[in-house]
Structure formats: C-alpha cells, structure tokens
C-alpha cells in the first residue's frame, strides 16, 4: 500500500518537482501568470473605477442572460470571489495551475480550466431554474459565481484521474457533494460541476487507450539479447 501511494505521489507531484530542480520554468509558467491575473483584479476591485469595471465585465449572476455571461467568462475565471479570501485564491491558482501544467502540458491545462470554469458558470441558471432543494431559490439570484475555484477543482480532478489516483478523485467528488448539502449556495454547486467536469474529461481522454485492442497497443521495448560467439568463432577455437 505504501509503495502504491508513493508511486501515485511521484506521478502527481514528480513532474513539478523535476521542473523546479531542473529550472525548467517554462513548464510551470501558467501558475504564476494566473496568480498574477487574480492579484491584479483583486487589487483593482478595491478602487472605484476597478470595482465598476469588474462588476460589469468579470462577475456573473445566475439570473443574467447567457449571452451576457459568455462575454464575462474570460475575466470571471480570475475575478475575486466574495466568499474566498484573496490570499487563498492567489495561492490555490498558483499551485494547482503549475502542478497541472507540469503533469498535463500547457494546452491541455488551459483547455480543462476553461471547460471546468465555463460549464460551472453556465450551470448557474440551471440551478436557479431547478429550485430548492436541489437548486437555488430566487432569493439567491444575486449571488456571484465561484471565481477561479471552479477551474482549480476541475484541473485538480483531471490531474488525479490522469495519474490514476482514484481514491483522491472519489474524495474530491464526495467532498464537494457534501459541500452542496451542508453549505448550499451557488459556489458549492459550481465546485461540484467543475470537479465532475475534470473527472469526465480525464475519463474520456483515457478511454481510447483503455479500449484499444491489445494487438494495436504499442509493444513494450525489449532489450536485444547480447551477441554471443558465432559459429565461425567456435570453429576457430577448435582449430586452435
């Protein structure tokens, strides 16, 4: 059990550790870039002009029309969340985006983050339409979205499934499902959607390899046997 856990930790954290040790910072730049975006918007919202700009172009609500939400999607992934401490938002984005980039690569990390954030944000009107107890009441229509958290949990869920850390993926889904029941509100529901999106995308990405017939899979490389003495060498040895 301990060996398996160690192997899972190496698969999940090893690429990022190797990138830091080898100073391959090109494999980790998404984390600092995303953290910088969260920091800039976090300080901007404290000014009058910045608050007006972010409210108009970076914050979404469940009762808004979908076209208006789509326009705000890019900046809303880095906008400060009302219920999330500013320093924690920066820290989680810095760590998870860097970790995911080292494990998954740049473009897959970006794609999963956008998919998780977009689906979570666009699910808000559906939660409002569903109504209590599963969805939201109309008194919650003013709630803001979860900010960068939906993208973070989507990346984390994708990475753990990709690295075959199944128990951690199950723990993430269970935790956010419990959060919906115990805490309620829009952010907890968006966290659950983001987590399920990451798990689903990772399973879809792994399906072609798992379903591929064994004869079509790339065979493992077998080292060539060491060359032994040929028949001519044996004959020469006998003559001597």
Describe the structure.
The protein is mainly alpha-helical and 240 residues long. α8 packs antiparallel against α9.
Please render the helix and strand layout as text.
Elements: H1 2-21, H2 30-44, H3 48-57, H4 66-76, H5 86-104, H6 106-122, H7 124-130, H8 149-162, H9 166-182, H10 185-211, H11 231-239
Helix pairs in contact: 1-5, 2-5, 4-6, 5-6, 5-8, 6-8, 6-10, 8-9, 8-10, 9-10
**Poorly predicted ranges (pLDDT <50, ≥5 residues)?**
none
Provide a count of the helices: 11
| DSSP strand count | 0
Q: Which word captures the global form?
A: globular
Output the radius of gyration: 24 Å
Provide the succession of SSEs: HHHHHHHHHHH
Largest sheet: none
> Percent range for helical residues?
55-70%
Mean pLDDT: 85
Compact overview of the structure:
This protein has 240 residues and is an all-alpha fold. It contains eleven helices and no strands. Helix 8 (149-162) runs parallel beside helix 10 and helix 9 packs antiparallel against helix 10 (185-211).
Give the tags.
240 residues, mainly alpha, globular, single chain
């Amino acid at each position: 059990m301990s060996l398996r856990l160690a192997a899972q930790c190496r698969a999940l954290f090893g690429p990022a550790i190797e990138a830091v040790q080898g100073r391959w910072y090109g494999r980790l730049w998404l984390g600092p870039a995303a953290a910088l975006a969260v920091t800039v918007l976090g300080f901007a919202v404290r000014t009058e002009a910045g608050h007006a700009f972010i409210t108009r172009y970076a914050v979404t609500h469940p009762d808004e029309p979908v076209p208006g939400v789509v326009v705000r999607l890019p900046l809303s992934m880095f906008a400060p969340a009302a219920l999330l401490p500013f320093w924690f938002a920066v820290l989680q984005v810095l760590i998870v985006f860097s970790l995911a980039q080292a494990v998954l690569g740049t473009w897959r990390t970006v794609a999963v983050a956008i998919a998780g954030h977009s689906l979570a944000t666009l699910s808000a009107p559906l939660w409002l339409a569903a109504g209590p107890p599963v969805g939201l009441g109309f008194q919650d229509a003013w709630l803001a979205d979860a900010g960068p958290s939906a993208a973070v949990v989507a990346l984390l869920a994708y990475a753990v499934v990709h690295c075959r850390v199944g128990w951690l993926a199950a723990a993430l889904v269970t935790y956010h499902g419990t959060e919906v029941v115990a805490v309620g509100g829009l952010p907890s529901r968006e966290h659950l959607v983001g987590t399920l999106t990451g798990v689903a995308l990772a399973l879809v990405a792994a399906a072609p390899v798992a379903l591929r017939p064994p004869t079509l899979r790339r065979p493992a490389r077998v080292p060539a046997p060491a060359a032994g003495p040929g028949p001519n060498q044996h004959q020469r040895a006998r003559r001597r």
